[in-house]
Structure formats: structure tokens, C-alpha cells
Amino acid sequence: MNKKAIMIRKGTSFMVNAIQKNLEEAGYEILPVDVTVAAVSAKRAESDILIFYLGDFVTSASELLVYLKDLCADEEKLLVLLGTKEEIETVNETIPSALIAAQFTRPLDIKSLIDELNRLVQVTDENAHKKTILLVDDDVTFLKTLKGWLSATYRITIVTSGAQALMYIADNKPDLILLDYEMPVTNGPQVLEMIRSETKTGTIPVIFLTGKGDRESVMKVVALKPDGYLLKTTDKETLLKSLAEFFEKKKYEQLHEMQK
Predict the structure, then answer these.
(1) Which CATH code is given to the segment(s) 4-128?
(2) Contacts of 69 by beta carbon, 8 Å cutoff, 6+ apart
(3) Which of 39, 67, 147, 195 has the maximal Cβ count within 10 Å?
(4) Is the full-model pTM beyond 0.70?
(5) 120-134 burial, b for 16+ CB within 10 Å, e for fewer?
(6) Is 4-128's fold the same as 132-259's?
């Protein structure tokens, strides 16, 4: 098990140090970060578990709370809150309880905390074996629907623009990008061109999502040579079957390459 967690805290204190020491004795690597978006963002790729030691500062930490909510919703980070009942209630005003993996009121039962972290580590280990898919679409409702369909089988990250997609793949390499063909500002074809132009990202598979199924529209999509295309009207079962077949095909292609 990869027992690593990011600990968000404001400075250090006797209690913070004691919790960190107990977790390290239980075999955890703790990555302490300050209570800023920049600090959390810099470390976010190193663990899916975020331990947030709260304080009275949470009443004025709206930017960080919104950022953490987005991490939990879009990147499926597992957020653990440690705080007073009032501090946790303040956080819940921004981050719904459904997005929070666990919450503990102080004073802490450290054994219960360690047991819960061990459970969450097992969850992240199971998730690590899932294929990762980046969904790119400016239609938030459509994104949420797709994520709901796919999350049981794949690790899903969602972004709402081409620019956000390019920023994401600068630091992450998903197994597949499902890319909306028609988007404002930077459309799907432009995003695909930029992905293919970079050595680091050029091999990431891209499947277009298109709302138009007429022959002319489909031919325009295919002419750009993506790894495939799917109609937005595709139902859940057909979508899951198409993705399973895609990944199966990629697996055999990779095996064939290894045998050469």
C-alpha cells in the first residue's frame, strides 16, 4: 500500500506535530503544506489523500475551500477533516458532506484516524489500477452525466475548456481524453492539434465527442485522425462497451509492439 498523505495545516503546533508523528509511526509519509491554493496545488499529484487540520482561519479561506471542493469532485481526491464541530460545519457550507471522505472532531481518537486512513489507502490502491480518462466539454451537465456513468469503471477528471485540458496534461498523462468537438474559444480540433504537436503529450489517445451524426460532420471529425469518435447521444451501455473495446484494442497493440 502507498501510505502517503498530504497534510494541510496553518503553521505548526503541538497537536499538529503529535498527529504527524503518530501517523509516521503507523507507516505514513506525511507531506505538510500551508493553507493556500498554491501550496496544495504544488503537491496535489503526490497523493489522493488530503488531511485538513482546521482552525478558526476556515471562515476566511473561501478560495482554498472552493479549490478543495473542485479537487474532490473533479480529481476524486479523498478529503479528511480534523477540527471542531463548528469548523467542520463551516467547511460543509462550501464542501458538501458527500464529497468528504471522513471527518473527525477534536480531540482526536488517533487509532480511529489511522484505521480510516488505512481504509482510504486501500481505496486509492484499487483506484490506481483503473484507467484514467480526462473529459473535456463546456457543457457541465453533460460532463456530470458522463462522470456518473464512468466513475465505477474508470478514474475520471473533468475540465470545461480546452485551455484547462492543456494545463492538466502538462502535469498528468491520462490513458484517454474524451474531447468535445465544438467548444468556444479553443475548439476540439485546435486542442487535438496542440496535443499532437508536443512530444510529451503526442501519444495520448484522443476520442472526439460530437453532437452531430450526419455524414459531412462525421467526415470532418475523422479527417483530423483522432483515435475515434463517439456521438453525444450514445447511451450508457454502448459508451461503456465502446470504451472497453478501445482499451482492449490498445492493450493488444501494446503487446504486439513488445513482441517485435
Answers:
(1) 3.40.50.280
(2) 94, 95, 96, 99
(3) 195
(4) no
(5) bbeebeeeeeebbbb
(6) yes
Q: How many CB atoms lie within 10 A of CB 37?
A: 14
Residues 37-94: tens digit of each pLDDT: 999 999 998 988 999 999 999 999 999 999 999 998 888 889 999 999 999 999 999 9
Residues in contact with 166: Cβ distance below 8 Å, sequence separation at least 6, in sequence order: 191, 194, 195
pLDDT, tens only, 96-134? 988 899 999 998 999 999 999 998 888 777 666 788 999
212-239 burial string, b = 16+ CB within 10 Å, else e?
eeeeebeeebeeeebebbbebebeeeeb
172-175 LR contacts (CB < 8 Å, sep 24+): 172/45, 172/132, 172/134, 173/201, 173/204, 174/132, 174/133, 174/134, 174/204, 175/131, 175/132, 175/133, 175/205, 175/247
Contacts 24+ apart (CB under 8 A), 31-35: 31/4, 31/5, 31/6, 31/7, 32/7, 33/6, 33/7, 33/8, 33/9, 34/8, 34/9, 34/10, 35/8, 35/9, 35/10, 35/61, 35/64
Q: Which three cell numbers stand for residue 187?
A: 475548439
We find that the CATH architecture of domain 132-259 is 3-Layer(aba) Sandwich (3.40)
Q: Which of 148, 50, 137 lies closest to 102, judged by CA?
A: 50
User: In the structure grid, which three cell numbers stand for residue 218, read together?
Assistant: 462525421
> Mean pLDDT in the chain?
89
Domain map (residue ranges) of the chain: 4-128, 132-259
